[in-house]
Every structure is written in structure tokens, then in C-alpha cells.
Amino acid sequence: MKKFGTAALAIFFAMGLSACSEGPAEEAGENIDEIVEDAGNAVEDACEDAKEATDAKDKDC
């Protein structure tokens, strides 16, 4: 019976932790990922614009 109680308690805590994974920290992480991706895209766009303006042979950034 003691093993059952210990197992039930462990499952209870594991379920509690998994329910917290979609909280504010997860949302903040997704927002940071989006900001970093947008910044990378902006840098690449600026590079492409600069190469077009200078008529560079190599158009890859």
C-alpha cells in the first residue's frame, strides 16, 4: 500500500509539472523566438537591398 501511495504522489506531481509547461515562461520563449527570427529576416533583407543598390555580383547574403 505504501508503494501505491508513493507512486500516486509521484504521478500527481508529474501531472502538475506538465500542466505548467504552457504557462507564461513558454509564451515568453515563443515571443523571444519570434523576435529573433524577425530580426534575422530584417538583417537578411537589408543585406539583399544593399547588394542590389551596389549592383553586387554575389546576391547571396
Description:
This protein has 61 residues and is mostly helical. It has a domain at 22-61. Helix content is 79%, strand content 0%. It is built from two helices and no strands. The protein has helices spanning 2-19, 24-53. The chain is rod-shaped, with a radius of gyration of 25 Å. The N and C termini lie far apart (65 Å). The mean pLDDT is 81.
Draw up the topology in text.
Elements: H1 2-19, H2 24-53
List keywords for this structure.
2 helices, signal, mainly alpha, 79% helix, 61 residues
* Average pLDDT reading: 81
Poorly predicted residue ranges = none
- The tally of beta strands, per DSSP, is 0
- Report the sheet-strand fraction: under 5%
What is the structural class?
A: mainly alpha
Radius of gyration: 25 Å
Give the N-to-C terminal Cα separation: 65 Å
Number of distinct helices:
2
Describe the largest sheet: none
**Shape field:** rod-shaped
Helix percentage range: over 70%
What is the helix/strand order? Answer: HH
Keywords: Signal
Signal peptide: 1-19
